[in-house]
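Annex B. Sample input.
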Amino acid sequence: MKKIILLFASLFVTFLSFGQCPSDPWAFSSHQDMVDFASLFPNCQNAYVFRFNGDGITDFSALSYVETVANVQFVDNGVLTSLEGFENEVLGMLWVENCDALVDFSGVNLFDSDLYYLLIKDSDGIASLNGLEALLTISNHVEITNNVNLPFCAIEPVCYAIANPAVGVVISGNAAGCESVSEVALACSLSVLETDQLKVVAVIPNPVADILQITNLGGLSLENVSIYGITGDLLQNTSETTINFSSFEAGIYFVEVTTNAGMLTKKIVKH
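Annex B, continued. Sample output.
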């Protein structure tokens, strides 16, 4: 009987040690590290933190059985040119720093993901944010800094983050077109795709001195109008078609009009 108890105890410890994912962050600096992880945790499906550090990381196939990873970091890798093959879905944080050979984010699995933290920093090879468009939202923090060959950052999840005052956004040191939050916010306002119904809606006059009007709604139902400053701060919410701009300082504002047919954003200049 004692032997049976010891056998079950041994099997229980083995299950806890090898059948689940580690509760602490796990760092990898070589392919062998990933092979060792697969041996230690063969049934790990939903991992906590994976940190890939150094030039020894180019092949992620040993971890393909892991379904999701809450937080993923790629750091100090000068040879990784693509995230193709990283099949694990990223659920919370994506951190890329000092990865000079990486050119974009094609291949990263972000399908239907809502990240809370996105950092892209000090990676001279990155020339595009392709691959990140699948993101639904970024809810807490966005930092895109010192990527000297990155000229365009106005993809939908970044635009929504800028427009959301609850999200901290830092953008600087990239190529012209993505050098500041205000520059990206302007590009976001100009890239909004409007439905045929929304194209007739007018926000006038522009420039405005005192009273701004939402007109040409036709049969559309106005649900909300939000006014944001150049840095993405929410200044006012209203459901009225007439908005008093007289108290606003001179500068650039973004007026987001939400109707039953969708949403459009207009850049407005206050004199």
